[in-house]
Amino acid sequence: MRKALPLIAAGVAAFLVTLLAIAPASLVTTILPSGVTLGMTSGTLWSGTAESLTVQGQSLGGIRWKFLPLHLFRGRVAFDGELLRGDGQVRGRLALGLGGRYEARNLEIHLPLASLPPGIAPRGWLGVVRAQLPSVQIPPAPAVPKMLGTIELRGLQAPPPNGAPIGSYSVAFDAASAQADKLVGQLKDLEGPMQVTGTVTLSAQRNYVIEGLIAPRAGASQAVINTLRFLGPPDAQGRRPFSLAGTY
Question: How many CA atoms within 13 Å lie on the side-chain side of 228?
């Protein structure tokens, strides 16, 4: 019997590979989380495309994917995917593990801020999201997400009627960012009318806190200077503390 086990395993693996190669792409919808839908699929479960990917009612564009069957032996469903749209792209390796754990590897994002689903980006703001994330892990609540890499917001512009340029900013996550029951990223400005340093903290309760110090840069408009005065008196370096909080 022991001698037959490798042959049985090889036979099961061959059957799974054959099944994946011929199963219609529409079957991928059975593993999608709530609020995520695909439209007009083609190809197979192994290698397919969909004309539209919708998340929380927001259409993100078309997608294509290539299934990675060996990950099944590690208890998860994984594929290399790419978002297809004319004004940006998202690509990387995505995986769904046991217990509802989501993972991403080598995730690259370049998207207009306005294209993101409600709840992820505030409505009316303009700009571009760029991210290079070698690793992202999103476990079921109440566990804290883990992340390595950098997220940038470029060319931020406030909503009408003001519509003022706000600048560009980045949040960096490294190995030290995971701290017990929270994830802490380092926030800084890249360019624009304001100098910013601070942190972005994500908690196990799916709350976030953005806090730090902010000061007008030389040449900032009077409107920016007047707005920052509402934060209170500055310190000796002309910086004022700020804090924002919410849920994600």
Answer: 23
Q: pLDDT tens track of the chain, all 248 residues? A: 445 445 454 455 555 555 555 556 777 777 777 788 888 888 887 788 999 998 888 888 999 999 888 787 777 888 999 998 889 999 999 998 877 788 999 999 999 998 887 667 777 889 999 999 999 998 887 788 899 999 999 999 988 877 788 899 999 999 999 988 899 999 999 999 999 999 999 988 878 899 999 999 988 888 888 888 889 999 999 999 999 888 87
From the list 84, 70, 67, 60, the residue with the least C-alpha distance to 23 is 67
Long-range CB contacts for residues 30-38, cutoff 8 Å, separation at least 24: 31/77, 31/96, 33/102, 38/63
